[in-house]
């Protein structure tokens, strides 16, 4: 079964940057939307950003102007560039790929913003 492999999380100081990546472990087809979600301790998982097959992007208001989602269609990989990070961005970040007849989730990668 295909899994999504995430990387790029870690510890960063406020104002710093991180870039998350998410790529499938095998071949997948007919991708519609790729996105990122996050879940902070004691909170529900929330949507962060998404990008359609045509390249249209959307962002949660809390990250708009600081985060950028992008995708490499040749590699079926989705990225999340996170700039000007704040302590409230601390969470486990999950990638999601929705295709025709399937939905895949990554295992999550921890992002901690702290001094």
List the helices and strands and how they pair.
Layout: E1 4-7, E2 10-12, E3 18-24, E4 31-39, E5 46-52, E6 57-59, E7 67-72, E8 77-82, E9 91-99, E10 102-105, E11 109-113
Parallel strand pairs: 2-11
Antiparallel strand pairs: 1-3, 3-8, 4-5, 4-9, 5-6, 7-8, 9-10, 9-11
Calculate the terminal CA-CA distance, rounded to whole Å: 39 Å
Mean pLDDT: 96
Overall, the morphology is globular
Poorly predicted segments: none
Number of helical regions? 0
Order of helices and strands: EEEEEEEEEEE
DSSP helix fraction: under 10%
Kindly provide the radius of gyration, computed on alpha-carbon positions and rounded to a whole number of angstroms. 13 Å
Largest sheet: 7 strands, mixed
The count of strands amounts to: 11
Class from secondary-structure proportions: mainly beta
Q: How much beta, percentage-wise?
A: over 45%
Word description of this protein:
Helix content is 0%, strand content 55%. It has 115 residues and is mainly β. The strands form two sheets. Strands 2, 4, 5, 6, 9, 10 and 11 form a seven-stranded mixed sheet that branches. It is globular and about 40 Å long. The mean pLDDT is 96.
List the keywords.
single chain, mainly beta, 11 strands, 7-stranded mixed β-sheet, 115 residues, 4-stranded antiparallel β-sheet, 0% helix, globular
Could you give a short description of this structure?
This protein has 115 residues and is mostly beta strands.
